Amino acid sequence: MSVVARDLSHSYGELRSLERIDLAVGDDEVVALVGPSGCGKSTLLEIVCGLRDHSAGEIAVEGDTGAAARLSHCAYMPQKDLLLPWFSALDNASLALRNRGVGKAAARVEAGALFERFGLAGFEGSSPQELSGGMRQRVAFLRTLVAGKPVLALDEPFAALDAISRGEMQEWLAGALRAEARTVLLVSHDIEEALYLADRVVVLAARPGRIVAELQAPHPRAEDRDHAVTDPAFVAVREKALVALREGTG
Ligand SMILES: Nc1ncnc2c1ncn2[C@@H]1O[C@H](COP(=O)(O)OP(=O)(O)OP(=O)(O)O)[C@@H](O)[C@H]1O
Ligand SMILES: [Mg+2]
Fold this sequence. Notes:
The chain has a single domain, classed as Rossmann fold, CATH 3.40.50.300. It is 38% helix and 24% strand. The chain has nine helices and nine strands. Strand 8 and strand 9 form a beta hairpin. Helix 3 (89-99) packs across helix 4 and helix 3 runs parallel beside helix 5. The structure holds adenosine-5'-triphosphate (ATP) and magnesium ion. Adenosine-5'-triphosphate is lined by residues 12, 15, 17, 35, 37-43, 79.
């Protein structure tokens, strides 16, 4: 198992943000977390990545329970892109490689090779302020992917994209994961995105944040996304997830 949470709880003072979470993510498994705003998805991701302490229970990543060790196994893409304003898009994208000890020129070549595929060609030298929200998100996403960590923790990676770019990025990520499997914990607001990208979708309810349903995706990361999401098996699971979400929100 790559990520294991047992009886994990967290509070912000009086507010019970997560209650008794039991979650196990296998090696190279993709698990999506969906749930209403404020149900603790980002908090859970931060705890997994060792960026926030939990209040009770256990958490391990790649067998390690210490926060620093957990962080060392995770490439984390926060909900806010956190690009460095004084770095160009290319140097922001290269950052994770530089942190791994790759030299500046080599890091620029490796990250730069992905710019075209991410729809960023020509913007290598732009500063983050000169990019659109969707482009900034793609730079942050690229930086996370090239970090070379076993676990990807992605908090709403496509939230700032329009529907078309969003579908394209989902297909692209699906292809990337087919080519090179990774353990992924993905937060999404979009049930269709979650069911297309993930092997398993975990539905959370709010106040307190807890798991209310777990659903197996019928065609994870299928090559033809449009076909997969209109398949009757997919539609049936989506309906189940929506019911669980509605019950959790109400
Ligand atoms: N630093 C903080 N201090 C106090 N309360 C917080 C803090 N961060 C989050 N919360 C509260 O904890 C709960 C869970 O927040 P969290 O950001 O994890 O939710 P989320 O599921 O990621 O929501 P969203 O879908 O809007 O991103 C919310 O009620 C939020 O108001
Ligand atoms: Mg969040």
